[in-house]
C-alpha cells in the first residue's frame, strides 16, 4: 500500500511538472473544475459525466439535441413532455457553472430538466453556450440572444422540426436558469434592444415572453454581504467565496471588477433604463445555506421597491445548486418543492 501511494504521488508530481513545462505556470484554478495556465491553455476535468439525450420511456419526456449555430458550436437539448395534449409553455433554460464550466449534456442537468419538463408539463430548451475564459462575457449573453432569434425562426418556419414545434406555444415563453444561467437570463432581458423595449418585443414576434425564473442567481459585488462573509460552508459546497471570485475574474471583461453591472446589478441602484424591465413576473429561488443568499434577498427587495412583479422562495437547509448536485433526502425533498413552485408560477401567469 505504501509503495503504491509513493508511486502515485511520483506520477502526479511528474504530470504537474510536465504541465507546467508545456503550458507555463497555473494562473487561475478552482480545484477539480478548471485550471488556467499562463499560456491561456484551459483544462476542465470531467468531474460530471456528459450523457446523451436518452431518457427512460416511463418518464413521459422525449429529448433531442439540436444545433443552433454550427460556427460557434451553440446547441440546445430539448425536453418535451409527451403526457399532455395541446400547446405547451416553453422554458429557455441556461445551465450554471460560473460561466466557466458546465454543459447542457451534464448528467445532473439532464436528469433535473427532464424531471422538470415532466412536472411542469412543458417544453424545455437547455442552451449550451460558450464558456469563459476562452469566450468571456458578453459571449454567453450573445449566445442566449442568438438562441432566442433561432427560436423566432422556428416559430416562423412551417413544419420546422415538427417533433417539438407542433406542441410549442411560442406566445408562452419563460426564461430560466440557475446560478450563472440565472445571471444570463437576467442580463439577456436587461440588455439594450432585448425583450424589455417595446420595439424589440415587437421585433421578436411571434415569440412572447411571459416570465422569468432565476434559481440561485450568480451575482457579486466588491462589498461583501453577511452571508458571503459569515455563512459557514461545508468542504463539499458547490460554491465558495474564493471560487466565486475566480469565476468572475475569468468571466468579466479585462480590467473589470465585481461592481461591473453584469456582476452587480445593484452597484448603482436599479438603472432608470430598466423601467420597462419586468413587465414580466419574476420568480427568484434562494437557498438558505447559499453564500449568495443575502445578495439574492437584496436583489428581490430592490425590485420590489421599484414596483416590479417579483416573488421569491427560500429553500430551507440546502445550499447552492442543491437541485442538481446533492443526493441527500432533504435536497430531493426541496427539489420536488422547487419544481412544484415553478409549475405554479408558470401556470399562474
**Strand share of the residues?**
15-25%
- Structural class, please? alpha/beta
Low-confidence stretches are none
Number of domains: 1
- Indicate the CATH architecture: 3-Layer(aba) Sandwich
Q: Specify the CATH homologous superfamily.
A: Alpha/Beta hydrolase fold, catalytic domain
Biggest β-sheet, characterized? 8 strands, mixed
Radius of gyration over alpha carbons? Answer: 21 Å
The CATH topology is: Rossmann fold
Average pLDDT figure: 90
Q: SSE order, as H and E?
A: HEEEEEEHEHHEHHEHHEHEHH
Helix content: 25-40%
Number of strands: 11
| Number of helical segments with 4 or more residues | 11
Organism: Populus trichocarpa (Western balsam poplar)
Domain Alpha/beta hydrolase fold-3: 91-323
Family: Belongs to the 'GDXG' lipolytic enzyme family.
Protein name: Alpha/beta hydrolase fold-3 domain-containing protein
Written overview of the protein:
There is one protein chain. The chain is globular, with a radius of gyration of 21 Å. Helix content is 36%, strand content 20%. It is built from eleven helices and eleven strands. The termini are far apart. The protein has 349 residues and is of the alpha/beta class. It has an eight-stranded mixed β-sheet with strand order 4-5-7-6-8-9-10-11, sandwiched between helices. A three-stranded antiparallel β-sheet has the order 1-2-3, with helices on one face. The protein has a single domain (46-158, 174-348), classed as 3-Layer(aba) Sandwich (Rossmann fold), CATH 3.40.50.1820. Residues 91-323 form the Alpha/beta hydrolase fold-3 domain.
Amino acid at each position: 500500500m505504501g509503495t503504491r501511494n509513493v508511486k502515485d504521488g511520483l506520477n502526479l508530481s511528474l504530470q504537474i511538472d510536465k504541465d507546467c513545462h508545456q503550458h507555463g505556470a497555473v494562473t487561475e484554478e478552482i480545484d477539480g473544475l478548471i485550471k488556467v495556465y499562463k499560456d491561456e491553455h484551459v483544462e476542465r476535468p470531467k468531474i460530471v459525466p456528459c450523457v446523451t439525450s436518452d431518457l427512460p420511456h416511463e418518464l413521459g419526456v422525449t429529448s433531442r439535441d439540436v444545433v443552433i449555430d454550427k460556427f460557434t458550436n451553440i446547441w440546445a437539448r430539448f425536453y418535451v413532455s409527451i403526457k399532455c395534449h395541446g400547446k405547451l409553455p416553453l422554458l429557455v433554460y441556461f445551465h450554471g457553472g460560473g460561466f466557466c464550466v458546465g454543459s447542457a449534456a451534464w448528467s445532473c442537468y439532464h436528469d433535473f430538466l427532464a424531471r422538470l419538463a415532466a412536472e411542469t408539463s412543458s417544453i424545455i430548451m437547455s442552451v449550451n453556450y460558450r464558456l469563459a475564459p476562452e469566450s468571456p462575457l458578453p459571449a454567453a449573453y450573445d449566445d442566449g440572444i442568438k438562441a432566442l432569434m433561432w427560436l423566432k425562426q422556428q416559430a416562423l418556419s412551417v413544419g420546422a422540426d415538427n417533433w417539438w414545434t407542433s406542441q410549442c406555444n411560442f406566445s408562452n415563453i419563460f426564461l430560466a436558469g440557475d446560478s450563472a444561467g440565472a445571471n444570463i437570463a437576467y442580463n439577456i432581458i436587461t440588455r439594450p434592444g432585448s425583450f424589455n423595449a417595446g420595439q424589440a418585443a415587437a421585433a421578436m414576434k411571434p415569440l412572447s415572453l411571459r416570465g422569468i425564473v432565476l434559481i440561485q442567481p450568480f451575482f457579486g459585488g466588491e462589498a461583501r454581504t453577511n452571508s458571503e462573509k459569515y455563512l459557514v460552508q461545508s468542504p463539499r459546497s458547490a460554491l465558495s467565496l474564493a471560487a466565486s471570485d475566480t469565476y468572475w475574474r475569468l468571466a468579466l471583461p479585462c480590467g473589470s471588477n465585481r461592481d461591473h453591472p453584469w456582476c452587480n446589478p445593484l452597484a448603482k441602484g436599479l438603472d432608470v433604463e430598466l423601467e420597462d424591465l419586468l413587465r414580466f413576473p419574476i420568480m427568484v429561488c434562494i437557498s438558505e445555506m447559499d453564500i449568495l443568499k443575502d445578495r439574492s434577498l437584496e436583489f428581490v427587495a430592490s425590485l420590489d421597491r421599484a414596483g416590479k412583479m417579483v416573488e421569491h422562495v427560500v429553500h430551507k437547509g440546502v445550499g447552492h445548486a442543491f437541485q442538481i448536485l446533492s443526493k441527500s433526502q432533504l435536497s430531493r425533498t426541496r427539489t420536488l418543492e422547487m419544481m412544484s413552485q415553478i409549475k405554479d408560477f408558470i401556470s399562474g401567469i
